Amino acid sequence: MPPVTVADSVRALEAAYPPALAQDWDAVGLAVGDPAEGVRRVLIAVDPLPEVIEEAVTVGTDLLVTHHPLLLRGVHGVAATGPKGTAVHRLIRHGVALFTAHTNADAARPGVSDALAEALGVTVEGPLAPQDDGTVGIGRVGSLAAPESLAEFSRRVADALPATAWGVRTGGDPQRSVRRVAVSGGAGDSMLHLARAAGVDVYVTADLRHHPATDHLAEAGAPALVDVAHWASEHPWCAQAAAVLAAAAPDLEITVSTVRTDAWSLGSPSPEPTCAGAVIS
């Protein structure tokens, strides 16, 4: 039996990402696997999708750690007749345990948004949406080492995060000066008001919808927006979680998955507009 077990790994991860920080609706912790089983190889990814599970099986993974849960909503069975049941059966059949740290990893410090801020060169000052004693919470607020234009910052974000089909979208004056930054890994348009209240120059998040974004940008003095793919915004956390496990068990063989699990597979640029509008008769 290897010196490290699934239970040991879970303890290390839950010390870093306490389950008590998770939202009430969330499903975190050990979803598949025997706590007494040994662990030699760990794979860390954002999503427990079929291609990630296939990677875990192929490389002989004992423990798959993901940010997003496999079984978030209530289920009444795990027959291998649908995607979720098939995933559970494949994990069990090949001896792969599955552990998830979701909104607890979002709120923990360091957590998902700290990893995103670090990737972007943002020095964190505190949470965007504090909870409990104010030291933890969703999102982060911080600053760049020196001001730069919004266009330059948008390029910084695109260069720092893993590539996706549709890249990075930015709303605001390209020449606007950017120094103070708010970030939130994952879907963050529910916190647009907090970004405004924080007095930042730009807010980086994912899954921004048309109406909340346009309403936000119409407000005088509102922060510019940088919208990235959900998966890309949370992928930096994988290296953070790998470091947590490596510190607790240096003998583990830990790999961060590079499988792109962003939902979108193709981006087709629009042609340059040739006129300001069109006349319909």
TrEMBL record:
Pfam families: DUF34_NIF3. The keyword Metal-binding applies. Keywords: Metal-binding. The keyword Electron transport does not apply. Gene3D superfamilies: NIF3 (NGG1p interacting factor 3)-like (3.40.1390.30). Homohexamer. Belongs to the GTP cyclohydrolase I type 2/NIF3 family. PANTHER family: GTP CYCLOHYDROLASE 1 TYPE 2 HOMOLOG, NGG1 INTERACTING FACTOR 3. NCBIfam families: YbgI_SA1388. This is GTP cyclohydrolase 1 type 2 homolog. It comes from Actinomycetospora chibensis.
